[in-house]
Design brief:
Layout lengths: L11 H16 L6 H29 L3 H25 L6 H29 L2 E2 L2 H24 L10 H25 L25 H24 L1 H10 L6 H10 L1 H12 L3 H26 L13 H18 L3 E2 L1 H19 L2
Antiparallel strand pairs: 1-2
Helix pairs in contact: 1-2, 1-7, 2-3, 2-7, 2-10, 3-7, 3-11, 4-9, 4-10, 4-11, 4-12, 4-13, 5-6, 5-11, 5-12, 6-11, 8-9, 10-11, 12-13
Subcellular location: Membrane
Organism: Streptomyces cavernicola
Protein name: Ionic transporter y4hA
Length: 366
């Protein structure tokens, strides 16, 4: 059942996304005074809450795992559009933007969101149950895509630096899209049962709850408002990004930390949706959101920037440095050891949150 959107009324879930989109259109590309930045930030927070609410309405109508797929893909598509736009406008300084954003998304989803979901699920019932088959497949897909797209460019020799040649980038794009399509087909058609919620007794739940699903009209309205809210979230994040950059610079933090902050804000809807699902003992839905977002982030971003690179000048740095490769390898190992049993305790949740905290700390102090 769709959760209530907190302090927002039902009318507010309609008005706030539209208002946030209007303000986005009026403020895009302009230098904003402090009071207007504060207004955009408030509307950004409201749009996040609305996005979660409307995503849960759609999820209740279409069922799992389609519901979690809707939010993950919607956020990622808009995020990819933002990355391509920033790369087109940023010149040489945006050479590593795609790599930094995708890697941050992987760390946030596979450690931050997964750790939070496991911690909440295990705290409420001692253990957090989920499907071994589906979750292992998702982790394997994340590991494959991340290695092919973010690790290999560091070691290829056809072009100096952590870059792919044109042919290598085209191959990586085709493979990423094919693997993403294969995973979605398995998740939604061939082995849908692997991604359904699991009770503590091992029973697979084909229905999210016993409440009546929303009408078709309500579902389409929520789907439209979900897209509006997500456009507002990503766009308003871009609008206030100069303020974030100035704050990061004033604090003496590395410029790369800006990407982490922006990724955290963009992924807020998925984080809150995963938290709500974990609180309702639907850990599998939380993991679907987290791993699905990581897979979509790589599987859709790499093909998009491969196409965009045809007309964009400048370098495209995709290969990770040594520190980030260690973090990725450790994340994969811990993720595999977490999901092979199909039940997680507070320890596993704490380990993933520790890796997430380490990623954030190393972004601040590399």
């Amino acid at each position: 059942m769709a959760s209530q959107p907190g302090p927002l009324t039902k009318a507010g879930t309609v008005v706030v996304p539209l208002l946030a989109l209007v303000v986005l259109g009026l403020t895009w590309g302009r230098d904003l005074p402090g009071w207007l930045v504060a207004l955009v930030a408030v509307l950004l927070a409201g749009a996040v809450l609305c996005a979660v609410h409307h995503a849960e309405v759609v999820a209740h109508k279409v069922g799992e795992p389609f519901g979690s797929l809707v939010l993950a893909v919607a956020v990622t598509v808009i995020e990819v559009a933002l990355i391509v736009t920033l790369m087109a406008d940023g010149g040489d300084k945006s050479a590593s933007l795609a790599r930094d954003t995708v890697f941050a998304a992987v760390m946030i989803t596979c450690n931050g969101i997964v750790g939070l979901a496991l911690l909440v699920g295990a705290w409420r019932g001692g253990v957090a149950p989920f499907s071994t088959e589906g979750t292992v497949a998702a982790v394997a897909t994340v590991a494959t895509l991340a290695t092919l797209s973010l690790v290999l460019p560091t070691f290829t020799t056809s072009k100096p630096g952590p870059e792919f040649t044109g042919a290598q980038l085209a191959f990586a794009a085709v493979v990423s899209l094919a693997v993403y399509g294969l995973f979605v087909a398995m998740q939604t058609v061939r082995h849908r049962e692997f991604f359904l919620p699991v009770t503590r007794d091992g029973e697979v739940l084909d229905e999210d709850d016993h409440a009546h699903p929303p009408s078709t009209r309500e579902t389409f309205l929520s789907l439209g408002l979900l897209l509006v809210a997500l456009v507002a979230v990503v766009g308003d994040t871009k609008t206030i990004s100069p303020v974030i950059e100035d704050g990061v610079a004033a604090a003496g933090l590395p410029q790369a930390f800006v990407g982490v902050v922006i990724a955290l804000m963009v992924l807020l809807p998925e984080t809150l949706a995963a938290y709500h699902s974990a609180r309702r003992d639907r850990t599998q839905i939380s993991l679907n959101l987290a791993h699905g977002s990581a897979i979509a982030s790589i599987g859709l971003t790499i093909p998009a920037i491969a196409v965009a690179s045809i007309w964009m000048d400048g370098r495209l740095l995709l290969g990770l440095g040594a520190t980030h490769m260690v973090m990725l390898a450790l994340t994969v190992v811990v993720s595999v050891l977490t999901v092979i049993t199909g039940r997680a305790t507070l320890l596993q949740g704490g380990l993933h949150l520790t890796l997430f905290a380490s990623f954030v700390f190393l972004a601040i102090s590399p």
